[in-house]
Structures are given as structure tokens and as C-alpha cells.
Amino acid sequence: MSIQSLGVGSGLDLEALVSQLLEAERAPKQERLDTQEESYDAEISSIGSLKSKMKDFLDSVEELSSDADLKGREPTVKNPSEDVEPFTAEASNSAVEATYAIAVTQLASGSRIETDNAEDGGFASTSDSVYTQTLPTDPASGSLTFKIGATSDSFSIDVTAGMTLQQLSSAINNSDDNFGVRSSIIDTGTESGGAKLVFTSSVEGEGNDLVIVNDNDLADLNRLATTNSTETVNYLSPVLNAQNSKATIDGIAVESSSTEFENVIENVSFSVSQLSELGDDGVTPLTSSLKIGFDTEAVEEKIRAFVENFNALNTEITNLTKYGLSDLEDDGTLAGDAMLRGIQNGLSNIIGSKVSSSGLGTLFQLGIEFNEDGELEIGSSNKYGFGSGEDRLKEALEDNFDDIAALFTDSEQGVAVRLEEYVEQYTKASGLLTSRERSVKDQKDQLSDERIQFELRLASSEQILRDKYLNLDQTVTKLNQTGSALLASLGSI
After folding, report:
1. Cα 201 to Cα 110: distance, rounded to the nearest angstrom
2. Residue 228 in contact with residue 217, Cβ under 8 Å?
3. Portion of the chain with pLDDT greater than 90, in percent
């Protein structure tokens, strides 16, 4: 029988009665399901937040777990004055600790070629034609090829009859194949000098002079070329040959075909940008000091990030597992949770452990200690007569750099190595926290199934109630009709 409106015949409010009975059955179950779902959501959110903090902490631990990361080299350059900085340097982790005296005496450059003065057969102005077709038998055009003899760099420019000096210069600069030749025009402002076309090559290094070939051996184009088509005749010559960078390292002369000196000092590179200053005699270049040492600043940053991320994780665990001290203070989402307390204790035990292979022994000697709130700190006060945490950290960075690496990276006892292994068992894809998160999500899914089943049972209960009260409604309706008939009969006597 289909669900229909009740009480129409009897006049009784049976719809309200059925609704109240259903609500009385629904309310406690609904409240329990809602409360359980909120609990699951809160636990999933809390586990996600904890995993995030643990991964942040793991990132800082991984920065300290590699011996190579902790033994990075930092080049320090000191120049005779702040006005001139001849070079910058980089060093790999395998560079030897040492100090070098370096002077830059020459910067690498490309070659430069200029056309002759007007009086020597050059050009009077930018509008001069670079090639004129004098006879009908002369070719309509020729070409110039620009190349570097020691490389495969090359491109050609077509030169048509009537092309001006300005047009040629633009064609060179706009060529898609141009490998680094710039053309410019300098107007000398004199009749004898005229307009000079200047070619500058960016290809540096001795032997990398620009060559300009008159491909068709047109006489007019000899004014723009360094050689003929067979490269057996010389025309223009470079006014500046391509040259190497030159420097001295502890008095030893070194050269590079570019501004980069790679591995001239083993595992060290430096880039030159200015000539070194000259001494009072105006001749002798002053040296700059290049010191290759440990990158203490980077290691200190890693150590402080480690402390900061541990404290963020520790605070998260404390907040999630705390019990409210009064009725006005809520418990943590995972109050008293054994897994989280275990994580907290495990981290503290590793951090406080001794590493026998390191002369520092423990993180305390590095300046890291627990305060009364269970947080790590690098303190500024001398609490125990061993100097402040800041003092101990500074001393270790200056005098015990190798021991810092051993303290964190020893394969058996290293604090960072052990912490990395410990944290990963919780945070990895198949880790304990991920498994727990998945379990709670499964329980939440089961809760959804339980809701569906509960709604089906309520629908069935509603049908039963409606059938029951429909019969009552019909019975009362018949009784009312019989009573009305009897009253009508009695009234007619």
C-alpha cells in the first residue's frame, strides 16, 4: 500500500503522530552517526596535519643526513678595495681548503675589424654603395661570408648592386644565422676619415679571429673583406685580435679562452669581469685573496631549520594529544593517543643520544638542548657552565666542522641518519600514519553504508506505521459515519 495522507477521514492528526514516532526513532541513531563522523573527520584532519609537520621536519633532517651537504665549500674573496671586484668564484665539495692570491691581468675578448679611411679607399658616407655594377657583364650581386676559422660558426650576406653601407650593416645585424657579429658605423666627421664600418665578434679566445671572405672576388667588396674566395690574399686586418683571459695564481700565469676559468684550481672555478687594480708603480697588479673553506653559514642555517621544524612538530603532537585542564579547555583531537606519544618519545630519545664517532658526542655540544617545555633551543644564556648554546654552536662551526658532519651523518649512530629512518616509517606511502589514515577513512565509508541501511529501515518503519494508522483512520471514519447515522435516526423519532 502506498504512503498517503493520514487523518483525512477521522480528523485525527495521524501525520504528526507518525512523524513524531519516526523522529523519536531517528534522533538518537542520527546523533550517534553524526558524532562518529565528526570524530572520524577530526582524526583524518589531525593525521594529515601531523604528516605535514613530520614531512617538514624530515626535509630539514635530510639536509643534515648527507656528509656531502655538510662539507660544502664556500669561496671567500677579499679584494684590495671595494671599488674593483675582478672575479667571483665557486667551489665543489671536493675542493681543498686553501687560500690563493689571484690577479686578473687580461680579459678575454673577440676580434674587431674596421674598414679603411675614405682617403685610403674606404667609404665617404653611410649612403655610399658598397657594390656598383659597372658593366652589363658584371654580376648583379655577390656575397660576404663571416666565419671564425677555429670553429664551425659561419653565415653569409648577399650584397646586391646599389646596396648602401647602412643597408649592409643592418642586413648583417638582422641575419638569423648571425653567431655573434655586430656591425656598426662610425662617422669620423672628416673627409679623409669618412664613414667606417666596424665589425665586432663576440667569440672570445686566442685564435678565434673573425674572417670575412669575399666569396665572388668582386673588387668593390675587397674594401669589406679580410681575404679572397680562396683565402690566399689578405685585405683588412683586425685592429684587435681575439684574446684569452689571463691571470696569475700565486704568481703562476694561467689563461682561458673565455672569462671562465674552469678547474684551473682543482674543483674551483672563477669568472673574471674586471682587471685587477694596479699598485703604486702603475704597473704591478694587486692580488685578491681567494679562500676556500667550509660553508659554515649554510650549515648553520640547516641546523637552525632542524630546531625550528622539530619544535613545530613537537607542538603539533602536544596539541593533538593533550587533555584539557578544566571543563573550559577542550581535549586535543587525539588526546592520549599512544602512537603520537610514541613518536614524540622516539624523536626525543634519538635527539638526546650519543654519537661516539664525533668529538662533539651529542647535540648539546653543538648548542642544541631541550628546554623545560620539551622544545629544542640554541640558548643565549649559560645555564650549566658550558657556555650558552649560541657560544657552543659558534665554537663547533669554527673548530669542529668535521665532527658536526659525523654527529649527524654517521651511518650507525648519526642523529640525522637515525631520525630520517625513524620518521620515514610513519610518513612514507606505506607508513604507519598513512595506514592509520586509510583505516579511519574505511571506517567512515562503513559509516556511510550504515546511514543508508538506517534510512532504509526508517522507510520500512514508516510504511508499517502508515499502514497501521491508515486502518485506524478508516475504522474511526466508519464509526463516525455509523454514529452520525444513528443520531440522525434518533433525531427523526
Report:
1. 5
2. yes
3. 64
